[in-house]
Design a protein that fits this description.
about 150 residues; binds iron/sulfur cluster; 6 helices; mainly alpha; about 60% helix; 2 domains
């Protein structure tokens, strides 16, 4: 899936030069509405798309400097991006912030699933640990790929 290479910068309010990362994104023009969920909707569908996006870090980076940008970018709502900005100002790498956010989201999802299915605490903790390891691996790989590029 791809969002139009013009749609993201328009959403970000940066319509002049199109950065190269827009050539490789996971969202599509048809899905654009998902990235602007109504009040009370956490936008999980859009966030899931962002998690699979090869340009996630660059996309998130592109909007962090402008708190007026609305919608989900890089898997973060405008509200959650304020936290990203604060954590980054404290010296935390963006990749780590993203990975930690994904772990937290997975934990919430796992808790919901466990409540629904009666999974034990031990099984739930193991699933969390597996998720955390997977996300750390993905973040490391993304960092290495960026460094090699
Ligand atoms: S991170 Fe999300 S909003 Fe940004 S380009 Fe990728 S899929 Fe689209």
């Amino acid at each position: 899936m791809r969002l139009s290479v013009r749609a993201v910068p328009r959403r970000a309010g940066v319509a002049l030069e199109l950065p190269g990362w827009l050539d490789d994104v996971a969202c599509t023009p048809e899905a654009a509405g998902l990235f602007f969920p109504p009040d009370g909707d956490p936008g999980d569908e859009a966030k899931a798309i962002c998690r699979s996006c090869p340009s996630r870090v660059a996309c998130l980076e592109s909007v962090l400097g402008d708190p007026s940008v609305e919608g989900i970018f890089g898997g973060f709502t405008e509200r959650s991006r304020r936290r990203v900005v604060r954590e980054r100002a404290a010296g935390r790498p963006l990749e780590d912030i993203i990975a930690a956010s994904d772990v937290a989201a997975d934990q919430v999802r796992a808790s919901q699933l466990a409540r629904d299915s009666g999974v034990t605490d031990l099984e739930r903790n193991r699933a969390r640990q597996r998720n955390a390891r997977r996300l750390q691996r993905e973040a490391r790989t993304a960092t290495q790929e960026e460094a090699a590029a």
